[in-house]
From TrEMBL:
The keyword Transmembrane helix applies. The keyword Protein transport does not apply. This is Probable membrane transporter protein. It is found in: Cell membrane; Membrane. It comes from Terrihabitans rhizophilus. It is a multi-pass membrane protein. Belongs to the 4-toluene sulfonate uptake permease (TSUP) (TC 2.A.102) family. Its main location: membrane. It comes from the Bacteria. The lineage of its organism: Bacteria, Pseudomonadati, Pseudomonadota, Alphaproteobacteria, Hyphomicrobiales. It holds the Pfam family TauE.
Length: 279
């Protein structure tokens, strides 16, 4: 017996794993402002490997689906942080256009890069940022007492949008560092990072849908370009419901504790993908 071309046993594993990933994604989105993509991408990669998705489109499908899931997760997380007064909407307004441009460029670049290249980009991101957060923390790298002007913020936004769309994250972890090295609290960094995830995930998901359309013949059932509809529909509602739990957890810890949690998580995920590229 099969459904949508997937055997019943495989489908049960797929559903259970994606629901579990949705819980982890939502909690992390609220707790660390990372949108959950750092969890979703590796989980989806394992599941799509299990389902024999071709190597040449597997990582692209992971990234596109991750960005689609981040949309509702970021909305729920942003609303929860806003109620606690931890969102800098002025920064988000400045970031809106450059982040969208960077995301569009990243999506275009991702369509041209082989799957192994995207895996390596994810690995480098996780290891470098994770080690920096664990060993130095953001306070040690403080460069000034407040955020730069519109030109500096736009440059940050362009870079964050480009790199985040390459690896399927909401950009919150990168936004966290920008805020922290410019004298802002980690809690405000996490809250604003949730809004940043929304700015990246909407154009990013649309871009991956369009970019993957020519590959529909080799993509799994219920895919819309490089976005798995079944993956997004299973992950997104659970992640959205559990995001407020992560917000409550975040506001129960100190800034340094959040830095250590984020650094540890990113390091583990980066190491996992580096191992996959090298082996």
């Amino acid at each position: 017996m099969s459904l949508f071309g997937i055997a019943a046993g495989d489908l049960a594993v797929l559903v259970g794993s994606m629901l579990a990933a949705g819980v982890a994604s939502g909690v992390l989105a609220g707790m660390l402002g990372v949108g959950g993509g750092a969890v979703i991408v590796p989980v989806l990669y394992q599941l799509f490997t299990f389902l024999d998705v071709p190597d040449e489109v597997r990582m692209h499908l992971c990234v596109g689906t991750s960005l689609a899931v981040i949309i509702p997760t970021s909305i729920r997380s942003l609303m929860s942080h806003h109620r606690r007064g931890a969102v800098d909407f002025k920064a988000l307004r400045i970031w809106a256009v450059p982040v969208a441009v960077g995301t569009a460029l990243g999506t275009l670049l991702a369509a041209l890069i082989p799957s192994a290249g995207l895996e390596l980009a994810f690995a480098v991101f996780g290891i470098v940022i994770g080690l920096q957060m664990l060993v130095l923390g953001t306070r040690t790298l403080k460069v000034r007492d407040d955020l730069p002007g519109p030109a500096g913020m736009s440059a940050y936004g362009l870079a964050i949008g480009l790199f985040s769309s390459l690896i399927g994250i909401g950009g919150g972890s990168l936004g966290n560092i920008v805020f922290a090295i410019h004298g802002r609290s980690m809690h405000q960094a996490v809250g604003t990072g949730a809004g940043l995830g929304l700015l990246i995930s909407v154009p990013g998901a649309i871009g991956f849908m369009i970019a993957g359309w020519p590959e529909m013949a080799i993509l799994p059932p219920l895919s819309v370009g490089y976005v798995s509809a079944i993956g997004a529909l299973l992950l997104a509602p659970v992640a959205m419901l559990t995001a407020p739990l992560g917000v409550r957890i975040a506001h129960g810890f100190s800034s340094r504790q959040l830095e250590i949690a984020l650094g540890t998580f990113l390091l583990l995920m980066g190491a996992r993908f580096l191992f996959g590229v090298l082996v």
